């Protein structure tokens, strides 16, 4: 399986297609963009070369969401979860870089499928979770994020809490933004993204940012529950294909 190198037209076009689909999903739902992009790209390329690039692209895609979400963040809960996630993040990154690519690819698909099924079932808490529970879920989410760059674990947790959906979405966006920055710094320091990839990466980022913006506008115009269920079924389908390949 060839490495993902954004230095020629074919891989760039394929990455732009993945970014186009993923950006719209990310902007509309506040989650799932990285999962969609990772599943599409790992069909053709090994995860260790896909995840660092998806991370940088998704980090850029967070920018259009911050303005509309930061004022809604529940700071105590999100801070506890974010700190715990950052502590566990290196465990996942180590797994990504050392485990067999086929195993990581199937793990990514399995995590996405399990999370999508949980969200379809409408998992909800009757009351607010304790600080300890928030920290434990944050740590597990950080380890999973490091290995797969799938943030759906923490998004399920936030969305399952009682309260407004837009507040839960804002908590997840902020959590992912902070962990993104730390992971991006780690991958850049390790040389996981080559300088030759940067022009192609910038083009893919522009596609992702543009469709994230459109998705964020659609969040206010389209019935959320219908679109969310469609996205979850798409994720299950993509994950199934990835596990069978």
Provide a quick synopsis of the model.
By secondary structure, the protein is mostly helical.
Could you explain how this protein is built, in words?
Helices cover about 80% and strands about 0% of the residues. The protein has about 240 residues and is mostly helical. Helix 1 (about 10-30) packs parallel to helix 3 (about 45-70). The mean pLDDT is about 85. The radius of gyration is 17 Å and the shape is globular. It has helices at about 10-30, 35-40, 45-70, 75-100, 100-120, 130-150, 150-160, 165-190, 200-220, 225-245. The chain has one domain.
Task: Write a concise keyword list for the protein shown above.
single chain, 245 residues, mainly alpha, 79% helix
Mean pLDDT: 83
Cα gyration radius (Å)? 17 Å
Secondary-structure-based class equals: mainly alpha
Q: Uncertain segments of ≥5 residues (pLDDT<50)? A: none
Order of helices and strands: HHHHHHHHHH
- Integer count of domains: 1
The N- to C-terminal Cα distance equals 12 Å
The geometry reads as globular
The proportion of residues in beta strands is under 5%
Total count of strands: 0
Largest sheet geometry = none
Number of helices: 10
Helix content: over 70%
What is the element layout, followed by pairings?
Blueprint: H1 9-29, H2 33-41, H3 47-69, H4 75-98, H5 101-120, H6 131-148, H7 152-160, H8 165-189, H9 198-221, H10 224-244
